[in-house]
Amino acid sequence: MSRAARREAIEGYIGISPWLIGFVLFTAGPMLASLYVSLTDWRMVEAPNWVGLRNYVKIFTDDRDFRRAIGVTFTYVLMALPLQLLLGLGLSLLLNQRVVGIRLFRTFFYIPAVLSGVSVALVWMWLLNPDFGIVNAFLGVFGIEGPGWFWDPDWALPAIVMIGLWRVGGGAIIYLAGLQNISPHLYEAAEIDGAGAFARLRHVTLPMLTPTLFFQLVMELIDAFQAFTAVYVTTGGGPVGATFFYMLYMFRTAFVDFDMAYASALAWIMGMIILGFTALVFKSSALWVFYESEGRG
Amino acid sequence: MAVATSELSSPTRRHWSRHLPAVVSFLVLAVLAVVVIGIPVGWTLSTALKQRHEVIAWPPVYWPPDPQWHNFAEVIERADLLRFGINSLFIAMFTILGRLLSCSIVAFSFARLRFPGRGPLFMLLLSTLMIPNQITLIPQFVLFQTLGWVGTYLPLIVPDFFGSAFFIFLMRQYVMTIPRDLDEAARIDGASTWMVFARIVMPLCIPPLTVVAVLSFLSSWNEFLSPLIYISRYDDYTVQLGLSFLRGKFNVEWNLIMAGSILGVVPCILIFFLAQKHLIGGIASVGLKG
To answer: Measured between alpha carbons, how far is A270 from B172 in angstroms, rounded to an integer?
Structure first.
């Protein structure tokens, strides 16, 4: 290595050192530490004792809260994720049209995504108030008696899904960027071949958008499994455990009961679930994600 | 050819079929904007301006005849929102500063300097985007507890001085688009690497730096879980913590709860409108191709 190259390499390492040190200190180190802690009985008071897989065994065989939290979280992900993707995509297709005031529309639908989760959750609690909320008032106009939403075990989870859907404009902006990267030539070519609007959507827009869809699917999957703020503010896990999200269970175990060992085991299990699904999405991507550079697929 | 003839023969129909998708899109967007955004926002604002008895009136009072603008002052005073606002701003300023400094230098180094392992390290950086926060949450707490930082703002600020994978990625993509000729010209004139960074590359990076600053402000201002875990003294609360206690504090005084919620998002909306152009473009540019 020449002197100049060596110098550049040293400068390069210095340049990235903030991130590298931060990675070791705040990500890699803590991850290893929590793996170790999850194999102990540590509660932050006395020194940890090694207990092997005891926490994990207990979680999987003798923990009703865990089963409840997993059930609630999976139900939420199954409800929220497809709706978020579909509505986000639909909205972005609309926002990609050349109509009057389109810039204003884009801004308008994006705003909910920049608002704080706490404020949005409070507002939705009031909109969905069973007695005085405007949503039930609106339903009443059609003679429908609206449900109790956050106060009803059957409707609390859908209400939390709705909070997420209200902010779907954040995802739509990312799809929109993907849509605008699609070359107009492709549409022209499709049109010359006699493709109608629906065929263009199916054979040009959607395939070209799959990399964006893939990115968004991964990011929203990770977020959905970690839902916390909206639940904490609105229901706190109730009514009767209907919204007892996994993150809430972990939060309580760690920061209310201070059972750090058990909470770390819970964290690793959810971490593995998320990584597993992410890996699945990555594996499946060969089947449905189309990259232009690969040539004509 | 048949299509072409029929279009030629009836110009009006052609006109309509051309514009139909746009008209339908406009109508759908307008209806959605009113129903999904307009009505909830309007209802929130109208509630915030109501008197107590109007809040629980049935049928609902859609717009209070005598708007109570002092509700905002009342919630600021009773929920200490001014103090919490200053706390949140203080934290946000440091978060922004930390991210701008660290992300720009790391991004510059990944984009411009050659060193062994650069490729794998960059892949490592990208893969950290996919690590769920859950796994690091508890051990980070233990780490900060050991350092005696729990109950201070340090856990909310210090990690930001060590970069953020997302923003490093965003900035690196941008630096890659800046022609190297400029660097090389400066180097021939004897500029060091860090002078190239500070004098040549950074001044051209105003757009991504703006995006980093704005998004960092929003994420810091809106952050809920970390303050909830790390801040214990009431006087140190952030706006989000203060807001989360509104319901316990005001019980069924939804007019005040709504006024507080509105106040809590005012800075986000202001910043958003100020930086809107950079922001949407910047988020969009986050190298989805990378």
So the answer is: 31
